[in-house]
Amino acid sequence: MGKNNIKVWYDDFNIELGDSLNQTINKGLSNSRYGIVILSHNFFKKEWPIRELNALLSKEKLGEKVILPVLHNISIEEIKNYSLLLADKAGVQSKKGLDVVVKQIMGVVSKKPNFPGAVQEYIPVPNMNFNEIIKYCKTSSYDGIKKAGEQLEKFIKISEIDLELAFLGAQHVVSLILIDVYFYLYQSRERINSIKDVENANLLCQVLGKNTLGQIKIIYNLGDIALRNNGFYTKETINQTDLNVCKQSLKGILNWYFNSYYSKKTNKDRLCLVKPGEFYKEDIQEIYTIESKFFDPSFISPVEVATQWYEHNNKTLIGVRDTLTGKLVGFLCTLPITNELFEKISSGEYIDTHISTEDIRLYNLPDFYKLYLCSLCVDPEYTHTSALRLIYRSFIEQLFDLAVYDEIYITDIVADAISSKGEELCKFIRMKFYKNTLHGTKIYKDSLLPPSVTLKGREGLKLMNYYKMIYEQYIDLL
């Protein structure tokens, strides 16, 4: 606590020898109201600062300010080359001097928070004894933690009598935790009985991190030895030292469960929307990676081309990010295009991988626009999540806002459906099949003026009603 009564988390004096960097930094970020980010050219070149920045961005919600930028030897124009979102945030220049920087930061952080809800307090599992951990579990309102606590209590009691059964009990505690996390990630309850089961669930593996994975491996290995001993297949040596290692590993797993997984799960939705203007260069690369899981490379735009499209008109992308991993997991690319390009795509003889920015219009003037539904993908591991629904709703809201506030109206829509999922989307919004292409895909077309597509949901109905009104107003011009 400083002289201004502000509690500060800073890694140099909050991370001790032997601490898990990932867990300690996650704790610091999750328990902080604000993040002071020193933006420089070096900042954008390093992996860890970008990871921490993404975590802070996932905390920002409508009306909630989290990131406080300090610009060090870098201009707003230069920041635009790295992130248009950050370039839009008001920052203070370090060259104005430390007193000015501190004064401006204090002007923000000293204010009383005006957003609902508080970040869950960090549970200091490594410093607690098992009776304290069990008590915390029993008083939790969350069933997953309660069940883990019940099994943990059995583990402690049996560890005083039978080592083999104790190790099997520890394995059961871990399995309960992993089943809970697996269900949250995949919406499916699967038995997790071995480290191989964990490693085969790729997303689960990413979320756990290397440190927690290592601790889980220790528990499963000890449990497997105990199982063989109980079955009289062999008699491998296990002793009190192994039990102590087992307990420490359990604490590490519980620490992750309470503070990294559960706190994020309870304090925010796991998936957050990435709005137009909020994409990073790493996200464009991730878009290419996701598309590669669905399409032949000949149908995928190179990263540098997709980057040019976004830099030219940053309202062309909408995405979804996983707040647990920080990764982009789904996106929709829509391009407002010239009449000439619209006709080329409609002909079925054009492949869209190298569209020139000259053919992509800016949403800068009230006018009638033609839209190309360029690409929609959700990572296969997120098929059964809310990712697609979030993207769809955000897209409809974007069209509504463009119409209401900017008088930008979409007349015609065209899509080149490469995959079965693309066809499903076209059929979902009742777009009409137009023709087969020379490259083996299907063209779908329809219009919003006059209203012809059927956009589902409350947002879709609101947009279509507004477009019907606009059509009656401009019918003589269309």
UniProtKB/TrEMBL annotation:
Name the InterPro entries for this protein.
Acyl_CoA_acyltransferase, TIR_dom, Toll_tir_struct_dom_sf
TIR domain residues are 1-109
> Which keywords describe this protein according to UniProt?
Receptor
Q: Does the keyword Protein transport apply?
A: no
- Asked if the record carries the keyword Hydrolase, the reply is no
Annotated protein name in UniProt: Toll/interleukin-1 receptor domain-containing protein
Tell me which species this is from.
Answer: Heliobacterium chlorum
Its organism's taxonomic lineage begins at: Bacteria, Bacillati, Bacillota, Clostridia, Eubacteriales
